[in-house]
Amino acid sequence: MEQYDDIVVGSGISGLTVALLLGLNKHKVLLLEKSAHIGGSLRRFYKDGVPLDVGFHFTGGFGENGVLEAMLKVLGIFQAIKPVYLSGKKANQLFLEKSGKTYEIPIGYAATIERFSEYFPKERAAIVEYFALAKKVCEKTVTAEGVRNISVNPDPLDEDFITLQALFDRLKVNRDLQALLAAYNLCYGVKPQEISFANHARVCYNLHEAIARVEGGGEAFISAFKGQFKNIDITIKRSAFIEKVGEVKDTYAEKFLLSTGETITAKNCIFTLHPKQVLEVLPKEHLSKAFVSRVESFERSIGFFSLFGVIADPKEEDFQMSVVSLLPENDMNLLFSPEYKGDPALAIMKSKEEFRGKTSCVVSAFEVSFFEQVAAWQGTQMHKRGKDYEEYKRAHTESILKRLFEFYPQYKNRLQVLDVSSQLTFRDYLNSPDGCAYGIKQKIGQYNLFGKLPIRNIYAAGQSAVLPGIVGAMLSSFIVARAVVGKDIFNGFINAQLDKDK
Prior knowledge:
This protein is of the alpha/beta class.
Protein backbone atom coordinates (compact mmCIF):
# COMPACT_ATOMS: atom_id res chain seq x y z
CA MET A 1 0.00 0.00 0.00
CA GLU A 2 1.49 3.35 -1.10
CA GLN A 3 1.92 6.01 1.58
CA TYR A 4 2.08 9.77 1.10
CA ASP A 5 2.08 12.85 3.25
CA ASP A 6 -0.59 14.48 1.08
CA ILE A 7 -2.95 13.61 -1.75
CA VAL A 8 -4.02 16.48 -4.02
CA VAL A 9 -7.09 15.79 -6.15
CA GLY A 10 -7.36 17.80 -9.37
CA SER A 11 -4.54 19.35 -11.38
CA GLY A 12 -5.94 22.72 -12.43
CA ILE A 13 -4.11 25.83 -11.25
CA SER A 14 -5.22 25.30 -7.65
CA GLY A 15 -4.13 21.65 -7.54
CA LEU A 16 -0.80 22.40 -9.20
CA THR A 17 -0.20 25.25 -6.75
CA VAL A 18 -0.97 23.39 -3.55
CA ALA A 19 0.97 20.30 -4.70
CA LEU A 20 4.05 22.41 -5.45
CA LEU A 21 3.80 24.33 -2.18
CA LEU A 22 3.62 21.09 -0.20
CA GLY A 23 6.43 19.54 -2.23
CA LEU A 24 8.66 22.57 -1.70
CA ASN A 25 8.06 22.07 2.03
CA LYS A 26 9.48 18.53 1.71
CA HIS A 27 6.14 16.70 1.75
CA LYS A 28 5.69 13.52 -0.27
CA VAL A 29 2.75 14.35 -2.55
CA LEU A 30 0.44 12.36 -4.83
CA LEU A 31 -1.32 14.49 -7.46
CA LEU A 32 -4.39 12.84 -9.00
CA GLU A 33 -5.95 13.92 -12.30
CA LYS A 34 -9.08 12.34 -13.79
CA SER A 35 -8.12 13.33 -17.35
CA ALA A 36 -5.25 11.97 -19.38
CA HIS A 37 -3.42 15.31 -19.08
CA ILE A 38 -2.77 17.66 -16.18
CA GLY A 39 -3.65 21.34 -16.22
CA GLY A 40 -7.45 21.48 -16.26
CA SER A 41 -8.70 24.65 -17.95
CA LEU A 42 -5.11 25.91 -18.30
CA ARG A 43 -4.68 23.46 -21.18
CA ARG A 44 -4.75 24.67 -24.74
CA PHE A 45 -6.12 22.83 -27.74
CA TYR A 46 -5.00 23.13 -31.34
CA LYS A 47 -6.92 23.49 -34.59
CA ASP A 48 -5.12 23.73 -37.94
CA GLY A 49 -1.90 24.49 -36.12
CA VAL A 50 -3.45 27.36 -34.13
CA PRO A 51 -3.22 27.30 -30.30
CA LEU A 52 -6.53 28.12 -28.59
CA ASP A 53 -7.15 28.72 -24.89
CA VAL A 54 -9.81 26.77 -23.00
CA GLY A 55 -10.19 28.68 -19.73
CA PHE A 56 -7.21 30.97 -19.16
CA HIS A 57 -7.30 34.10 -21.30
CA PHE A 58 -6.02 37.07 -19.30
CA THR A 59 -5.40 38.05 -15.70
CA GLY A 60 -4.45 40.86 -13.37
CA GLY A 61 -1.98 40.58 -10.52
CA PHE A 62 1.28 41.25 -12.32
CA GLY A 63 3.35 44.35 -11.78
CA GLU A 64 4.44 46.28 -8.70
CA ASN A 65 2.82 44.88 -5.55
CA GLY A 66 0.96 42.35 -7.71
CA VAL A 67 -0.31 39.36 -5.77
CA LEU A 68 0.07 36.97 -8.73
CA GLU A 69 3.67 38.00 -9.23
CA ALA A 70 4.35 37.39 -5.53
CA MET A 71 2.80 33.93 -5.62
CA LEU A 72 4.76 32.97 -8.74
CA LYS A 73 7.98 34.03 -6.99
CA VAL A 74 7.16 31.88 -3.97
CA LEU A 75 6.56 28.93 -6.29
CA GLY A 76 9.84 29.53 -8.10
CA ILE A 77 8.23 29.89 -11.54
CA PHE A 78 8.09 33.67 -11.96
CA GLN A 79 10.86 33.75 -14.56
CA ALA A 80 9.05 31.14 -16.68
CA ILE A 81 5.83 33.19 -16.98
CA LYS A 82 6.04 36.06 -19.48
CA PRO A 83 3.13 38.52 -19.26
CA VAL A 84 2.03 40.41 -22.37
CA TYR A 85 0.14 43.51 -21.28
CA LEU A 86 -2.90 44.97 -22.97
CA SER A 87 -2.07 48.56 -23.91
CA GLY A 88 -3.23 51.25 -26.23
CA LYS A 89 -6.34 53.35 -26.57
CA LYS A 90 -8.68 50.57 -27.70
CA ALA A 91 -7.19 47.66 -25.80
CA ASN A 92 -10.16 47.34 -23.43
CA GLN A 93 -13.63 48.56 -24.41
CA LEU A 94 -17.28 48.24 -23.45
CA PHE A 95 -19.89 48.58 -26.21
CA LEU A 96 -23.55 49.17 -25.27
CA GLU A 97 -25.35 47.84 -28.32
CA LYS A 98 -28.74 49.42 -27.64
CA SER A 99 -27.40 52.97 -27.44
CA GLY A 100 -24.42 52.41 -29.76
CA LYS A 101 -22.05 53.93 -27.18
CA THR A 102 -18.47 52.67 -26.84
CA TYR A 103 -16.51 53.28 -23.65
CA GLU A 104 -12.77 52.79 -23.29
CA ILE A 105 -11.51 51.27 -20.04
CA PRO A 106 -7.98 52.56 -19.39
CA ILE A 107 -5.26 50.78 -17.44
CA GLY A 108 -4.50 52.10 -13.94
CA TYR A 109 -6.76 53.51 -11.26
CA ALA A 110 -5.94 57.20 -11.80
CA ALA A 111 -6.41 56.96 -15.58
CA THR A 112 -9.66 55.03 -15.14
CA ILE A 113 -11.09 57.59 -12.73
CA GLU A 114 -10.24 60.43 -15.10
CA ARG A 115 -11.66 58.71 -18.18
CA PHE A 116 -14.86 57.61 -16.45
CA SER A 117 -15.26 61.14 -15.08
CA GLU A 118 -14.99 62.50 -18.64
CA TYR A 119 -17.81 60.16 -19.67
CA PHE A 120 -19.93 60.99 -16.61
CA PRO A 121 -18.81 64.40 -15.27
CA LYS A 122 -21.79 64.81 -12.94
CA GLU A 123 -20.87 61.53 -11.19
CA ARG A 124 -17.20 62.17 -10.55
CA ALA A 125 -17.67 62.11 -6.77
CA ALA A 126 -19.35 58.69 -6.97
CA ILE A 127 -16.60 57.36 -9.26
CA VAL A 128 -13.86 58.57 -6.91
CA GLU A 129 -15.59 57.03 -3.88
CA TYR A 130 -16.17 53.72 -5.69
CA PHE A 131 -12.51 53.32 -6.59
CA ALA A 132 -11.33 54.48 -3.17
CA LEU A 133 -13.44 51.77 -1.55
CA ALA A 134 -12.23 49.14 -4.03
CA LYS A 135 -8.61 50.07 -3.38
CA LYS A 136 -9.14 49.97 0.39
CA VAL A 137 -10.67 46.47 0.21
CA CYS A 138 -7.83 45.08 -1.85
CA GLU A 139 -5.02 46.70 0.11
CA LYS A 140 -6.42 44.95 3.18
CA THR A 141 -6.77 41.52 1.58
CA VAL A 142 -4.96 40.70 -1.67
CA THR A 143 -1.66 42.60 -1.90
CA ALA A 144 1.74 41.03 -2.47
CA GLU A 145 2.67 41.81 1.14
CA GLY A 146 -0.47 39.98 2.21
CA VAL A 147 1.00 36.78 0.76
CA ARG A 148 3.69 36.92 3.48
CA ASN A 149 1.09 36.65 6.22
CA ILE A 150 -1.79 35.00 4.44
CA SER A 151 -4.65 34.20 6.79
CA VAL A 152 -6.86 31.14 6.97
CA ASN A 153 -9.70 33.28 8.35
CA PRO A 154 -9.16 36.89 7.22
CA ASP A 155 -11.15 39.45 9.16
CA PRO A 156 -14.31 40.46 7.26
CA LEU A 157 -14.66 44.05 6.11
CA ASP A 158 -17.73 46.24 6.11
CA GLU A 159 -17.72 45.87 2.33
CA ASP A 160 -18.24 42.11 2.71
CA PHE A 161 -21.77 42.86 3.91
CA ILE A 162 -22.99 45.13 1.13
CA THR A 163 -23.74 44.03 -2.43
CA LEU A 164 -22.26 45.73 -5.45
CA GLN A 165 -25.77 46.79 -6.46
CA ALA A 166 -26.44 48.28 -3.01
CA LEU A 167 -23.30 50.38 -3.35
CA PHE A 168 -24.41 51.55 -6.80
CA ASP A 169 -27.77 52.52 -5.32
CA ARG A 170 -26.17 54.37 -2.40
CA LEU A 171 -23.87 56.29 -4.74
CA LYS A 172 -26.81 56.93 -7.11
CA VAL A 173 -24.86 55.66 -10.11
CA ASN A 174 -26.72 55.81 -13.43
CA ARG A 175 -27.28 52.61 -15.38
CA ASP A 176 -24.65 53.12 -18.10
CA LEU A 177 -21.99 53.85 -15.48
CA GLN A 178 -23.13 50.78 -13.53
CA ALA A 179 -22.54 48.66 -16.63
CA LEU A 180 -19.08 50.18 -17.05
CA LEU A 181 -18.12 49.59 -13.41
CA ALA A 182 -19.58 46.08 -13.49
CA ALA A 183 -18.08 45.04 -16.83
CA TYR A 184 -15.62 42.72 -15.08
CA ASN A 185 -18.57 40.79 -13.64
CA LEU A 186 -17.98 38.71 -16.77
CA CYS A 187 -14.82 37.49 -15.02
CA TYR A 188 -16.78 35.82 -12.21
CA GLY A 189 -20.35 35.54 -13.48
CA VAL A 190 -22.55 36.78 -10.63
CA LYS A 191 -25.21 39.50 -10.60
CA PRO A 192 -24.35 42.84 -8.93
CA GLN A 193 -27.27 42.25 -6.58
CA GLU A 194 -25.80 38.89 -5.45
CA ILE A 195 -22.06 39.55 -5.08
CA SER A 196 -20.56 41.44 -2.15
CA PHE A 197 -18.80 44.64 -3.13
CA ALA A 198 -15.67 43.34 -1.38
CA ASN A 199 -15.47 40.20 -3.53
CA HIS A 200 -16.22 42.20 -6.67
CA ALA A 201 -13.34 44.50 -5.79
CA ARG A 202 -11.01 41.59 -5.00
CA VAL A 203 -11.58 40.13 -8.47
CA CYS A 204 -11.49 43.43 -10.36
CA TYR A 205 -8.81 45.41 -8.50
CA ASN A 206 -5.87 43.83 -10.30
CA LEU A 207 -7.65 44.06 -13.65
CA HIS A 208 -7.92 47.83 -13.29
CA GLU A 209 -4.22 47.97 -12.40
CA ALA A 210 -3.06 45.97 -15.44
CA ILE A 211 -4.40 43.23 -17.71
CA ALA A 212 -2.05 40.66 -19.22
CA ARG A 213 -2.12 37.57 -21.32
CA VAL A 214 0.80 35.17 -20.99
CA GLU A 215 3.15 33.98 -23.70
CA GLY A 216 2.08 30.42 -24.42
CA GLY A 217 -1.22 30.86 -22.57
CA GLY A 218 -2.12 28.41 -19.82
CA GLU A 219 0.37 25.90 -21.20
CA ALA A 220 3.16 28.17 -19.94
CA PHE A 221 1.95 27.61 -16.38
CA ILE A 222 1.70 23.85 -16.87
CA SER A 223 5.24 23.65 -18.26
CA ALA A 224 6.59 25.78 -15.41
CA PHE A 225 4.97 23.57 -12.77
CA LYS A 226 6.23 20.41 -14.47
CA GLY A 227 9.75 21.83 -14.39
CA GLN A 228 9.53 22.41 -10.64
CA PHE A 229 7.99 19.00 -9.98
CA LYS A 230 11.11 17.30 -11.32
CA ASN A 231 13.13 18.49 -8.35
CA ILE A 232 10.79 17.43 -5.53
CA ASP A 233 8.84 14.40 -4.32
CA ILE A 234 5.61 14.69 -6.33
CA THR A 235 4.03 11.68 -8.05
CA ILE A 236 1.41 12.32 -10.73
CA LYS A 237 -1.27 9.75 -11.51
CA ARG A 238 -3.35 10.59 -14.58
CA SER A 239 -6.71 9.01 -15.46
CA ALA A 240 -7.17 8.42 -11.74
CA PHE A 241 -9.39 9.79 -9.01
CA ILE A 242 -10.61 8.94 -5.51
CA GLU A 243 -13.65 6.69 -5.64
CA LYS A 244 -14.10 6.38 -1.90
CA VAL A 245 -12.74 7.69 1.36
CA GLY A 246 -12.35 4.64 3.58
CA GLU A 247 -11.70 3.81 7.23
CA VAL A 248 -12.56 7.07 8.91
CA LYS A 249 -11.64 6.88 12.62
CA ASP A 250 -12.23 9.75 15.03
CA THR A 251 -13.06 12.00 12.03
CA TYR A 252 -9.70 11.15 10.49
CA ALA A 253 -9.51 9.42 7.08
CA GLU A 254 -6.85 6.71 7.03
CA LYS A 255 -7.33 5.21 3.56
CA PHE A 256 -8.34 6.40 0.10
CA LEU A 257 -9.58 4.02 -2.61
CA LEU A 258 -8.62 5.04 -6.16
CA SER A 259 -10.40 4.37 -9.44
CA THR A 260 -7.35 2.32 -10.46
CA GLY A 261 -8.11 -0.21 -7.72
CA GLU A 262 -5.26 0.98 -5.51
CA THR A 263 -5.62 1.86 -1.85
CA ILE A 264 -3.52 4.82 -0.67
CA THR A 265 -2.76 6.12 2.79
CA ALA A 266 -1.99 9.78 3.43
CA LYS A 267 -1.86 12.21 6.32
CA ASN A 268 -3.93 14.76 4.40
CA CYS A 269 -6.10 15.00 1.29
CA ILE A 270 -6.81 18.27 -0.52
CA PHE A 271 -9.66 18.41 -3.04
CA THR A 272 -9.49 21.17 -5.66
CA LEU A 273 -12.71 20.13 -7.38
CA HIS A 274 -16.22 21.54 -7.65
CA PRO A 275 -17.84 21.31 -4.16
CA LYS A 276 -20.52 18.91 -5.34
CA GLN A 277 -17.86 16.53 -6.68
CA VAL A 278 -16.20 16.60 -3.27
CA LEU A 279 -19.52 15.85 -1.59
CA GLU A 280 -19.98 12.76 -3.78
CA VAL A 281 -16.75 11.22 -2.42
CA LEU A 282 -17.02 12.04 1.28
CA PRO A 283 -18.71 9.33 3.41
CA LYS A 284 -22.17 10.66 4.24
CA GLU A 285 -22.23 9.02 7.67
CA HIS A 286 -19.55 11.44 8.79
CA LEU A 287 -21.30 14.55 7.49
CA SER A 288 -24.05 16.54 9.16
CA LYS A 289 -27.31 17.26 7.35
CA ALA A 290 -26.51 20.95 7.61
CA PHE A 291 -23.17 20.46 5.85
CA VAL A 292 -24.72 18.42 3.03
CA SER A 293 -27.56 20.90 2.65
CA ARG A 294 -25.13 23.82 2.47
CA VAL A 295 -23.10 22.26 -0.34
CA GLU A 296 -26.20 21.18 -2.25
CA SER A 297 -27.56 24.73 -2.06
CA PHE A 298 -24.63 26.23 -3.97
CA GLU A 299 -25.78 27.69 -7.29
CA ARG A 300 -24.09 27.49 -10.68
CA SER A 301 -22.22 30.47 -12.05
CA ILE A 302 -22.54 31.37 -15.71
CA GLY A 303 -20.94 29.42 -18.52
CA PHE A 304 -20.03 30.36 -22.08
CA PHE A 305 -20.83 29.38 -25.62
CA SER A 306 -17.45 29.94 -27.25
CA LEU A 307 -16.30 30.60 -30.78
CA PHE A 308 -12.66 30.35 -31.84
CA GLY A 309 -11.39 31.79 -35.10
CA VAL A 310 -8.38 33.15 -36.92
CA ILE A 311 -7.99 36.18 -39.20
CA ALA A 312 -6.69 35.56 -42.70
CA ASP A 313 -4.32 38.16 -44.15
CA PRO A 314 -4.19 40.26 -40.96
CA LYS A 315 -3.27 43.90 -41.26
CA GLU A 316 -1.06 45.20 -38.47
CA GLU A 317 -3.03 48.41 -38.10
CA ASP A 318 -6.36 46.66 -37.46
CA PHE A 319 -5.25 43.69 -35.37
CA GLN A 320 -3.98 44.56 -31.92
CA MET A 321 -4.35 42.49 -28.75
CA SER A 322 -7.57 43.63 -27.09
CA VAL A 323 -10.77 42.70 -25.31
CA VAL A 324 -14.20 44.20 -25.92
CA SER A 325 -17.41 43.45 -24.01
CA LEU A 326 -20.66 43.76 -25.98
CA LEU A 327 -23.72 44.35 -23.79
CA PRO A 328 -27.18 44.41 -25.38
CA GLU A 329 -28.57 45.95 -22.18
CA ASN A 330 -27.04 48.17 -19.48
CA ASP A 331 -28.59 46.07 -16.69
CA MET A 332 -26.07 43.41 -15.59
CA ASN A 333 -28.60 41.83 -13.22
CA LEU A 334 -30.84 41.18 -16.20
CA LEU A 335 -28.02 39.88 -18.40
CA PHE A 336 -26.97 37.38 -15.72
CA SER A 337 -30.49 35.96 -15.31
CA PRO A 338 -31.32 32.59 -16.94
CA GLU A 339 -34.82 33.96 -17.61
CA TYR A 340 -33.45 36.71 -19.87
CA LYS A 341 -34.32 35.95 -23.51
CA GLY A 342 -32.46 38.66 -25.43
CA ASP A 343 -28.98 38.63 -26.91
CA PRO A 344 -26.46 37.52 -24.26
CA ALA A 345 -23.46 39.51 -23.08
CA LEU A 346 -20.53 38.76 -25.38
CA ALA A 347 -16.78 39.16 -24.79
CA ILE A 348 -14.41 39.22 -27.78
CA MET A 349 -10.67 38.77 -27.34
CA LYS A 350 -7.97 39.25 -29.96
CA SER A 351 -4.43 37.96 -29.53
CA LYS A 352 -1.40 36.93 -31.54
CA GLU A 353 -0.27 33.39 -30.83
CA GLU A 354 2.98 31.65 -31.77
CA PHE A 355 3.23 27.93 -32.52
CA ARG A 356 6.05 26.17 -34.35
CA GLY A 357 7.29 29.36 -35.95
CA LYS A 358 3.87 30.45 -37.17
CA THR A 359 2.06 33.56 -35.89
CA SER A 360 -1.75 33.43 -35.86
CA CYS A 361 -4.15 36.31 -35.25
CA VAL A 362 -6.74 34.65 -33.02
CA VAL A 363 -10.25 35.88 -32.26
CA SER A 364 -12.07 34.20 -29.35
CA ALA A 365 -15.68 35.12 -28.56
CA PHE A 366 -17.44 34.09 -25.35
CA GLU A 367 -21.21 34.40 -25.13
CA VAL A 368 -22.80 34.16 -21.66
CA SER A 369 -24.65 30.88 -21.30
CA PHE A 370 -26.70 29.11 -18.62
CA PHE A 371 -26.88 25.39 -18.03
CA GLU A 372 -30.64 25.49 -18.50
CA GLN A 373 -30.01 26.18 -22.20
CA VAL A 374 -28.23 22.84 -22.70
CA ALA A 375 -29.96 20.76 -20.02
CA ALA A 376 -31.96 18.85 -22.66
CA TRP A 377 -28.71 17.21 -23.84
CA GLN A 378 -27.02 16.71 -20.48
CA GLY A 379 -27.24 12.92 -20.73
CA THR A 380 -25.49 12.82 -24.10
CA GLN A 381 -21.85 12.42 -25.10
CA MET A 382 -19.63 14.61 -27.26
CA HIS A 383 -20.28 14.18 -31.00
CA LYS A 384 -23.46 12.21 -30.22
CA ARG A 385 -25.91 14.92 -29.17
CA GLY A 386 -28.27 14.90 -32.18
CA LYS A 387 -29.62 17.32 -34.77
CA ASP A 388 -31.36 19.64 -32.29
CA TYR A 389 -28.05 20.28 -30.56
CA GLU A 390 -26.31 20.96 -33.86
CA GLU A 391 -29.04 23.47 -34.69
CA TYR A 392 -28.51 25.11 -31.28
CA LYS A 393 -24.79 25.46 -32.05
CA ARG A 394 -25.45 26.77 -35.56
CA ALA A 395 -27.87 29.45 -34.35
CA HIS A 396 -25.53 30.70 -31.63
CA THR A 397 -22.57 30.70 -34.01
CA GLU A 398 -24.49 32.83 -36.52
CA SER A 399 -25.62 35.23 -33.78
CA ILE A 400 -22.08 35.69 -32.46
CA LEU A 401 -20.67 36.31 -35.94
CA LYS A 402 -23.39 38.86 -36.75
CA ARG A 403 -22.61 40.90 -33.63
CA LEU A 404 -18.85 40.47 -33.99
CA PHE A 405 -18.92 41.79 -37.55
CA GLU A 406 -21.08 44.74 -36.53
CA PHE A 407 -18.31 45.82 -34.17
CA TYR A 408 -15.42 44.66 -36.40
CA PRO A 409 -16.78 45.02 -39.97
CA GLN A 410 -13.23 44.74 -41.38
CA TYR A 411 -13.15 41.04 -40.42
CA LYS A 412 -16.35 40.01 -42.21
CA ASN A 413 -14.68 38.16 -45.07
CA ARG A 414 -11.45 37.35 -43.27
CA LEU A 415 -12.48 35.44 -40.14
CA GLN A 416 -12.18 31.67 -40.38
CA VAL A 417 -14.12 29.85 -37.64
CA LEU A 418 -12.01 27.00 -36.30
CA ASP A 419 -14.29 25.62 -33.58
CA VAL A 420 -17.28 26.30 -31.35
CA SER A 421 -18.01 24.91 -27.88
CA SER A 422 -21.02 24.84 -25.57
CA GLN A 423 -21.12 24.38 -21.81
CA LEU A 424 -21.48 20.65 -22.38
CA THR A 425 -18.23 20.66 -24.36
CA PHE A 426 -16.46 22.27 -21.41
CA ARG A 427 -18.18 19.90 -18.99
CA ASP A 428 -16.91 16.82 -20.79
CA TYR A 429 -13.48 18.26 -21.58
CA LEU A 430 -12.82 19.32 -17.98
CA ASN A 431 -14.75 16.59 -16.12
CA SER A 432 -16.77 19.26 -14.31
CA PRO A 433 -20.39 18.80 -13.15
CA ASP A 434 -21.94 21.34 -15.50
CA GLY A 435 -19.28 23.18 -17.52
CA CYS A 436 -19.84 26.48 -15.74
CA ALA A 437 -16.94 28.87 -16.13
CA TYR A 438 -16.45 29.85 -12.49
CA GLY A 439 -17.64 26.95 -10.38
CA ILE A 440 -20.26 28.10 -7.90
CA LYS A 441 -21.77 31.56 -7.56
CA GLN A 442 -19.89 33.66 -5.02
CA LYS A 443 -22.98 35.07 -3.30
CA ILE A 444 -22.96 37.53 -0.43
CA GLY A 445 -23.17 35.86 2.98
CA GLN A 446 -22.40 32.42 1.54
CA TYR A 447 -20.12 30.04 3.42
CA ASN A 448 -18.11 28.33 0.70
CA LEU A 449 -16.55 24.88 0.85
CA PHE A 450 -13.04 25.86 1.85
CA GLY A 451 -10.26 24.79 4.18
CA LYS A 452 -10.66 21.93 6.63
CA LEU A 453 -13.80 19.80 6.14
CA PRO A 454 -15.74 17.73 8.72
CA ILE A 455 -13.21 14.93 8.23
CA ARG A 456 -10.32 16.74 9.83
CA ASN A 457 -7.49 15.73 7.48
CA ILE A 458 -9.46 16.55 4.33
CA TYR A 459 -9.40 20.06 2.86
CA ALA A 460 -11.02 21.94 -0.02
CA ALA A 461 -9.44 24.59 -2.24
CA GLY A 462 -10.02 25.91 -5.76
CA GLN A 463 -11.85 28.72 -7.52
CA SER A 464 -15.13 27.83 -5.75
CA ALA A 465 -13.42 28.22 -2.37
CA VAL A 466 -12.28 31.86 -2.19
CA LEU A 467 -12.58 33.68 -5.51
CA PRO A 468 -12.84 32.59 -9.17
CA GLY A 469 -10.03 33.05 -11.64
CA ILE A 470 -6.36 32.16 -11.48
CA VAL A 471 -5.51 34.57 -8.64
CA GLY A 472 -8.41 33.47 -6.43
CA ALA A 473 -7.76 29.77 -7.02
CA MET A 474 -4.05 30.15 -6.21
CA LEU A 475 -4.80 32.19 -3.08
CA SER A 476 -7.02 29.39 -1.80
CA SER A 477 -4.14 26.94 -2.32
CA PHE A 478 -1.72 29.15 -0.40
CA ILE A 479 -4.14 29.36 2.51
CA VAL A 480 -4.76 25.59 2.60
CA ALA A 481 -1.04 24.81 2.26
CA ARG A 482 -0.40 27.05 5.27
CA ALA A 483 -2.95 25.07 7.28
CA VAL A 484 -1.37 21.74 6.26
CA VAL A 485 2.28 22.74 6.69
CA GLY A 486 1.77 24.85 9.82
CA LYS A 487 1.66 28.62 10.22
CA ASP A 488 5.20 29.29 11.42
CA ILE A 489 6.95 26.92 9.00
CA PHE A 490 4.91 28.15 6.05
CA ASN A 491 5.35 31.84 6.80
CA GLY A 492 9.10 31.29 7.14
CA PHE A 493 9.14 29.48 3.82
CA ILE A 494 7.23 32.28 2.04
CA ASN A 495 9.46 35.00 3.46
CA ALA A 496 12.58 33.08 2.42
CA GLN A 497 11.26 32.63 -1.13
CA LEU A 498 10.28 36.28 -1.54
CA ASP A 499 13.48 37.59 -0.01
CA LYS A 500 15.56 35.69 -2.61
CA ASP A 501 14.82 38.43 -5.12
CA LYS A 502 15.88 41.30 -2.88
